[in-house]
Every structure is written in C-alpha cells, then in structure tokens.
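Chapter summary example.
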Amino acid sequence: MRKTALMLTNEDRLLILVADSSMRQEPPDEELRNEAASMLGSVFDWRRFMKLAGHHMYLAATARFFKTLGTFEGLPEDVRGILEGEYFLSQARFTKKEYELIELVRDMEKEAVAPIVIKGIPLAYSLYNDPGVRVSKDIDILVPRSDLERCQRVLQKNGYFLRSGRRSAEEYRAYHFHYIYCRGENLDSVVELHWDLLDPTMDHAIPDEARLRERAIPLQVGGTTIRTLSPPDAFWYMGMHAAYKCFLAFRSLAEMKGMARRFKESDWNEVILWSARCNTDREMTLATSLCESLFGRLSRSGTAVGRAPGFFMKRFILSTYYPRALVWEWLPFRDTHEFAMELYLRKGFRHRALYLYRLVFPDRVTLTRLYFNYRTSGVKQRIRLHLNGLYVLMKVLLVTLFMGFLVRSEIIGPRMLDPERNR
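The structure predicted for these 423 residues follows.
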C-alpha cells in the first residue's frame, strides 16, 4: 500500500508525457499514441489530472498534445471544453506578455541598456513546438548592476511599481538578487529585474558576469531581436532555479530535459566548467539527477552532467525525494526539508556550522529570510525567537539524517508520503 503513495499514477505519468512531448523535435509516432492510449485505457481520473495539470500550467499543453496526436475529439466532452478554453486563453496571455516584453526591451535599449531576457518567452520560442502553450507568470530580465537605476526609471515610466513587501529597496540589494515590479490593479503584469542570477546569501557567485553577456544569443520575438542566455547557460540557470525551489520545480526539470535533447557534447562541457566556476556543481548534480528520475537519461556521456552523486547525496538527500513528490511538488515536512537542503548545499563545515548557529541566533540576513514574522524588540520576544530556533535546528538535523532512511525503509506510512493527502 505504501508503494502506491510513492509510485506514479497514470495521471502523473500523462503529465510527464505531455511536458516532455511539448518540447520534442520529432513528430509523434505510433509508440507515443500507444503510450497515451494505454494510460487512458486503464484506471484514469480526469478530475485529478486536470487539477495536477492546472497546478503546473500544462492545460494548454495538454490540449495541444492530444490535438497533435489526433485524439482530441475522443476525450470526454467536459474535458475538451476546459482544455480548449485554456488553450486559447494561454495563447492570448502569451501574446500580451510578448507585447509587454518587446515594449520594455525597446525602451531599455533607448536608454543604452542591453538587457538579457531569461526563462519565459525565450524558452517558449527555443524549446516548445507551440510557444503559446508555455504560460508565464512574469518577465525576467537581467541587466548590469550599473544600469539598474536607468532600468527602474523605464519600468516606472511604463506604469510599474516596486513591490517590496517588508523589505526596503536597500535590503533587496544587500540580501537578494532581483526586484519585483508590478503593473495593473490585479498585478497581472510582473517583471523581475535581475542584477544577478545567484542568491548572495549562499556559498556561490558568478565569477565573470561579462562572460554571460558575451555568450548571450539573439532571438527573434515578434519582429524584435532580444538577447537571451546561451543554451548551456540557460540549462545551468534552470538547474539553479530548481535548487532555489528545493528542487520541487516540475517545469524547470522538464525544460532541462528539453534543453538537453538539443545539446552537443561540447555544451555539456561548458555546463560542467561554468558550474564548477560558480561553485554550484552540487546543485547541478542534484537537479540533473532528479530530472533524470522523471524524464530519463539526459546525456549519453553519463548522469548528473558528467558527475555521479556521492554516497551521502544518494542515501541522505536524493532518497528524500520520490517520483510522486517531484510531480506534485510536495514532500512531508516541506518547510523543514527546505532548511535541510539549504544546510546540505552550504559548502564546508564552517559554513554549515554557521548556518545552524544562525537558525538559533539569527543575524539580519536570517531574520529577513527566515524569521520575518518575529519581533525582536523585547526580551521575551528574543527568548521566544531563540527557543523557536532551537526547535527548528532539531527538526533540520532530524530531517537531514533520517528522512531518506525513513522513506527507503518504509517506516513512514502511506498517508504521510502521499502528495495528494492535503490537496
């Protein structure tokens, strides 16, 4: 019974098939049709699948998938209606986002800024057979630090405002790597203005920002040439994007597979070298290993971008994930698991010890990132903060040391591991 909570259902498998097929370069063949028909021909819950596909924004891609197979009309009538509506809505949203992106890029270029557009629309054009099925919530733009103020003025001129939450703009610059700008009453237009791609509070950094810019490639979007990351750099960044989401980032893993399908052997070498220079090789090993657990082998030369996971990573870290957890982006004790992953991704004993110390005795950075709801103005509040930190510390150590073992040994019950338990 427990294994049912871990293994992929037909609904989970269909989502993986849709995600992978939406980026395949070859046309669908009989094997693909038979695979989809086999999933639908046995026990299949459309309600569950629609919920899962909606969560990951793959409803439009599902419509395109079955239309490409030529089996769309054979789907249940209510399902066809929802998928058809989502497909046209996705196309309209994509056109709107495309217009907003072109508007911003042109205005920034007028200010002598050469932005690099990351994720979103560039990935839609370079990876997807039908770019309009890739639903984007925001626009991500990378600019040199020296051009930040000019880019902020462009955003403000176009009606965007800085959404800072509890942080000031200065805190964002010190402890983060992008601003969030919004426009519209319902915040329906969002721009992430990056001056870096890596979290400054982690133990890694881009050693040569000029390299990313020199290797950026041109891409035609709506009659306008934009610049985006080169394929190896885009692959590396999607791995880091997954890492910042505790590797519970299904679409990022799927798109890593889509990029890998187009790689030359030299591209892998560039990913490996750049990842090592940025001190992000551990994150990339985890991201590629988890990607392969869902989508199969990425490279003919070996797993995990040429580097196999070590004993500790396999037994204590990778084993805490399982296929259904990755598909549903859910793990038991998820909040604590994120802390445990941050601990593991710290490089060296000193950095890990400092991370644990800061859980109990937080500095300004830790307060900003982890304990922003706590007040530290009084003695009682500080005592409460430290006691809570001790509690968090114990949970982090327990999850780090025992979660993988509990999953492997079947000690944890099926309901606790079932990602649909709380959905």
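To summarize the output: The chain has a mean pLDDT of 88.
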